[in-house]
Amino acid sequence: MYLRLIRTLDYLTSQPEWDGKRIIVIGESQGGGQALIAAGLNKRVSAVVATVPAMCDWGGTLAGRKGGWPQPFEAKGDMNKMRSTLPYFDAAHMLKGSKARILTEIGLIDVTCPSTSVYAAINQAKGKKIIFVVPYRQHHSPSNYLKENWENTVNKQREAFINEYLK
């Protein structure tokens, strides 16, 4: 999966339409985790929009908090091998040194990708961060009851960020 991210960036940046400066990667859940990973692996990624991103802070489980999806340390397996291998694939380790601008949405009641795991990852990045902390947001989209508030407070601003970035 990570190699696919790099090859996609290689292909996109080889196209004559690329302006040579801007690449924005956008994703939600596992796609949000991949967007963060892309920024960590490749300096050409200059902006990320990651909605309730997965694949962050897997080692959180080892520190007494819930790690991000897929919570590999909560599964049975060779703990020594996991401890020595998984950090190489965790967004919390990959983002160190990334200068990409990051806009992220964090759900405070998201138990799939807990807020602590997302913060552990994005705090490693060196670029500008815009963080939407959404108290009522679970991992899935907001309920119809809360959708209008979410549209006005998060989605419109996320769309404005993307549109402004792409000008």
Describe this structure in words.
This protein is of the alpha/beta class and about 170 residues long. It has one domain (about 1-165): 3-Layer(aba) Sandwich (Rossmann fold), CATH 3.40.50. The protein is about 40% helix and about 15% strand. The protein is built from six helices and four strands; from the N terminus they run αβαβααβαβα. Strands 1-2-3-4 form a four-stranded parallel beta sheet, with helices on both faces. Helix 5 (about 115-120) links the parallel strand 3 and strand 4 (about 130-135). It is flat.
Record the SSE blueprint:
Elements lengths: L1 H12 L10 E5 L1 H12 L5 E5 L27 H7 L5 H4 L6 E7 L7 H8 L6 E6 L9 H22 L2
Parallel strand pairs: 1-2, 2-3, 3-4
Q: pLDDT below 50 for ≥5 consecutive residues: which ranges?
A: none
Distance between the terminal alpha carbons, to the nearest Å?
30 Å
Number of helices: 6
Fraction in beta strands: 5-15%
Order of helices and strands: HEHEHHEHEH
Assign the CATH class.
Alpha Beta
Sheet having the most strands: 4 strands, parallel
CATH topology-level name:
Rossmann fold
**Strand order in space, largest sheet:** 1-2-3-4
CATH superfamily placement: Alpha/Beta hydrolase fold, catalytic domain
What is the CATH-assigned architecture?
Answer: 3-Layer(aba) Sandwich
Judging from the principal axes of the Cα atoms, what is the shape?
Answer: flat
Mean pLDDT rating:
93
Helix content: 25-40%
